Amino acid sequence: MHEGSRKAIIAAFAANLGIAVSKFVGFLLTGSAGLAAEAVHSLADTANQGLLFLGGNRAAKARDADHPFGHERERFFWAFIVALVLFSMGGLFAIYEGISKIRHPHETESMGIAIGILTFAIILEGFSLRTAVKETAHIKPAGMSYWQFIRTSKHPELPTVLLEDVAAESGLFIALFGVLMAHFTHEPRWDAAGSIAIGVLLVAVALILGVEMKALLMGETASPENQAQLLNALRSHQHVQSVIYMHTEHVGPDAILVAAKAIFSPDLSAADVSRTIDQAEVAMRDAVPAARFIFIEPDIARE
């Protein structure tokens, strides 16, 4: 796992744990639906950081007979589980809590406590979001938007933490708005509406994460830049006349499988072809270190 991802996860875990505890205390003291929704959301986020760590640890296991390409897809799988947790424990619970409070409204108690806890949570969540943005900037190409980074990154941890933190910070402001409106208008349904809005936001984020992680689990091709570098490295060998095709697939965030068919010089012996393939593989790995598994099939030109 990238060191930046690890830092972002640690910051998010610490922030969410502190926020979850404070929100649960606030909910027990005030009865706020928004605080209840946010408390469960923060608890789910805390668990999610643990799942991302679990995925990173399991992905580091050595290759074995049952997993010849390694275990790096574990990182995709556990990030997908994070999306499911965010959808169910976060989004659906918040919507359920909001609907329940609309049907059975009651005034929020201890308004000062609710506002204080939400403000404290906004500060902590802002720290977590700042860390995620800072670590993302280290690996995000210049000129690429954060949305593009989330859509194209093969490393699931940073996009997941980024989306979670943005959703959490937005949800906190929504909860604060709902609590304040409920207090000043004496209409508790504002608080309930805030909880529903938080739930809809979390469901949307969970769906985005789920779609992205599903694509990675199914096997995405390498980036166009990496494909071009691999193809150029193969074509540049003096005994490679042409490349018929080259297919790539990420079997992990930092592991690419390459399968290619190439036409070699016709005067090469079998031993020469074997040496040429070995040399081409070295050149391709030098060009793209993530290309761990390379399979090149020799062919002949056909009229």
Q: Identify the CATH homologous superfamily of the largest domain.
A: Cation efflux protein transmembrane domain
The geometry reads as elongated
Given as residue ranges, the uncertain stretches (5+ residues, pLDDT < 50) are none
CATH level 1 name of the largest domain = Mainly Alpha
Specify the helix fraction band.
Answer: 55-70%
CATH topological fold name of the largest domain: Alpha-lytic protease prodomain-like
Q: Count every beta strand, where a strand is a DSSP E run of 2 or more residues.
A: 3
Strands side by side in the biggest sheet: 1-2-3
Proportion in β-strands: 5-15%
Largest β sheet strand count, sense and barrel closure: 3 strands, mixed
Between the first and last Cα atoms, what is the distance in angstroms?
Answer: 48 Å
**What sequence of helices (H) and strands (E) makes up the elements?**
HHHHHHHHEEHE
**Number of domain modules:** 2
The radius of gyration computed from the alpha-carbon positions, rounded to a whole number of angstroms, is 25 Å
Helix-strand makeup class:
mainly alpha
- Averaged pLDDT: 85
CATH architecture of the largest domain, please? Up-down Bundle
Count of helical regions: 9
Structural description of this entry:
70% of the residues lie in helices and 11% in strands. The protein has helices at 3-30, 33-59, 73-103, 111-139, 146-152, 157-185, 189-218, 224-235, 270-287; strands at 240-252, 255-264, 291-299. The mean pLDDT is 85. Helix 1 (3-30) runs antiparallel to helix 2 and helix 2 runs antiparallel to helix 6. By secondary structure, it is mainly alpha-helical. Strands 1-2-3 form a three-stranded mixed sheet. The chain is built from nine helices and three strands; from the N terminus they run H-H-H-H-H-H-H-H-E-E-H-E. The chain folds into two domains: 3-218, Alpha-lytic protease prodomain-like (Up-down Bundle), CATH 1.20.1510; 224-299, 2-Layer Sandwich (Alpha-Beta Plaits), CATH 3.30.70.1350. The two termini are 48 Å apart.
